[in-house]
Amino acid sequence: MAAVRKYVSLAPRTGIISVLAVFAVIAALGIVPLVVKNTYLLHIMILIFLSVLLGSSWNILGGYTGQYSVGHAAYYGIGAYTTLILLEYHHVAPWYGAWAGMAAAAVVALIIGATCFRLRGPYFVLASIAVTEILRFTALNLKNLTNGAEGILATEIPPLTFHGRVITDFLTKVPFYYTGLALVIAVIAATRLVERSKLGYYFQAIREDQDAARSLGINLTFYKNTALVLSALFTSLGGSLYALYVGFIDPPTVMGLDLSVQIVLICIIGGVGTLFGPVIGAVVLIPLSEGLRSNFIAEELINWGLVRADSQTGMFLKENLGHAHVLIYGILVVLVILFMPDGILGFLKNVAARRRKAGV
Amino acid sequence: MPILEISHVSRFFGGLAANHDITFSLEEGTITGLIGPNGAGKTTLFNCITGFYPPSRGEIFFHGRRINGLGPDRICELGMARTWQMVRPLAKMSVLDNILVGALLRTGSVKKARELAAEQLAVVRLEGKARLPAGGLPIGERKKLEMARVLATRPKLLLLDEVMGGLNPTESEELIELILAIKQRGVSQMVIEHHMEAIMRVSDRVVVLNSGEKLAEGTPQEVSRDRAVIDAYLGEDDA
């Protein structure tokens, strides 16, 4: 019996406190739109949800399985285009269109997987970029299907009804907020399930050493493709959500390389291969990039009286800091990668571990 | 019926024959030592047998089934597992989880695999390190971990590639005892080793490779008296 108890103690445990904390956060997020009427804040929250969704999707393939795809815009674009093409040209409601998008993303993922997973390391990264660029150019040139560079404008999202009762008409940000929140919960729950299952252990074994994994009986092709399809399904949902929320898509915004990089950055900044890394990454990066874009820093410096608005520096900052947001953003990202190679979550964990060691 | 038959196996890299026309077989439940000077083709032969490089010529039968061309994962599933000369721990995963990954080959349940892994952990006496990341272990313990991990896949034939390299005498002794204990459980083994005393003690038969070809085969006593083997190891006697 003692031996049995020892096996149990070797299993990872979930503390009651952390479970309660997660439920408390979900409940608090659920209340936010009832209290907060500021649409800009809701907009930021929706962007954060979208980023968590994308980061967590990528994390399944990149973080757990170690396959650094820098082409996830492909699945995002497929989700976005499938949903809007079906909605605008065939009058299919988006909550069905999103499923079609997932199916299309899964099929494309398997085709990409069959070719790109023959490559390892940096070669896989390059192939993933190339394939997505091919898809972007295809979307640009298949004018009959995608309307090419002009993009597609969503003109009419039908109201969501249940037994004849209108649940929401998608006219405010609130339904998008709740949809985003639900998707975030779904992707984190799915990641958690994977993490604790045979799949998760096999994914991590592949990440650590592909040859060792193979020699332990792991079918690399099967498990890498499984990770890719799971990842693509959730990424496609992110694309569908974006397309409906913003109401306009064109190839550069939903299939561009910068989007693919952004998805990877969310994970790298937050912590690759950790359940909540993408959450941290999104919570740090989105307000940062939005704040820089709206010239928040210059305004606050002036508000706090650190710089006078009519001084030369003040005028310079007001004039230029907003335009320099990409530069500042880039510098901050480089600093985090240099000084926190395991991401913010990994950095905090290391600090905690060092403290514990010092305590003993 | 022999558990493994190697029939006229050759493996070429460009014009170099790393293995040339090697034929021998392993009886079930025995330990076969595979020795030879550096570069003799021992590890290449392991890679051919376990599916990492398909043999250029010849055939390999495991339990009478031809396994040329099967991938390493299929071969492991059939019951043949190998360790690596340069150990390959899954560095960021815990010691227990490393073994758990091996155990998952025979079960879909993580809970059950964890129990199997804990058993193997006890066999190699690493219980105290269960939760540590495998990448932080010293070399001796890494080798033990690697043994525990392949044992967790429940092999019928185990291929050990220099498990004693870099170990101190106490650790080597522990591994010799482990190899003999594994034999007691009916698992056949093929062992590459430079540690001659260990080879002589554990092996039922010894196969000697030199420059990619089989030089000699026999009981440890026969091989250690073989003129060609002595020449290959000590250099030919001009006197």
CATH architecture level-2 label of the largest domain in chain B: 3-Layer(aba) Sandwich
The largest sheet of chain B has its strands arranged as 6-7-8-3-9-10
Structural class of chain A: mainly alpha
Specify the CATH class of chain A.
Mainly Alpha
CATH topology of chain A: ABC transporter involved in vitamin B12 uptake, BtuC
Question: How many structural domains of chain A?
Answer: 1
Q: Which shape of chain A, going by the Cα principal axes?
A: globular
Characterize the largest beta sheet of chain A: strand count, sense, and whether it forms a barrel: 2 strands, antiparallel
The first-to-last residue Cα distance of chain B is: 45 Å
Q: Give the CATH H-level superfamily of the largest domain in chain B.
A: P-loop containing nucleotide triphosphate hydrolases
Query: Main beta sheet of chain B, described?
Result: 6 strands, mixed
What is the strand arrangement across the widest sheet of chain A?
1-4
CATH fold category name of the largest domain in chain B? Rossmann fold
Count of individual helical segments of chain B: 9
Most extensive interface, residues per chain? A-B, 24 and 37 residues
- What is the CATH architecture assignment of chain A? Orthogonal Bundle
Shape of chain B: globular
- Number of separate domains of chain B: 2
